[in-house]
Design brief:
The chain is α+β, with helices and mostly antiparallel strands. 42% of the residues lie in helices and 11% in strands. It binds zinc ion (2 copies).
């Protein structure tokens, strides 16, 4: 491990001010970012922001999607009817 935890992980010449809650690295004042009231290094903050953006992509039920679902169910229904007709 790196010695001298009193130094910023990213700037060895600078004194560490806080600790990143994510990676537990000592970070200087410049590297400290306050997001959601929590100290993070710039690296972890960008990771966090990416994580927030990622799954935020919502699939909305558009008319096309509903139509596709209805058509799909219709095909299954017709298939079952055809199967029943073939058996009898
Ligand atoms: Zn970090
Ligand atoms: Zn720094």
């Amino acid at each position: 491990m790196i010695q001298g935890s009193g130094r910023c992980h990213y700037h060895p010449e600078r004194a560490g001010l806080g600790v990143c809650v994510e990676c537990r690295r000592v970070i200087c004042r410049e590297c400290t970012t306050q997001f959601e009231g929590i100290n993070r290094c710039a690296s972890c903050l960008s990771t966090r922001l990416k994580a927030l953006e990622g799954p935020g992509e919502r699939r909305e039920w558009t008319v096309g999607n509903v139509l596709l679902a209805v058509v799909g169910m219709g095909i299954v229904w017709v298939g079952m009817l055809a199967l029943a007709a073939a058996v009898s």
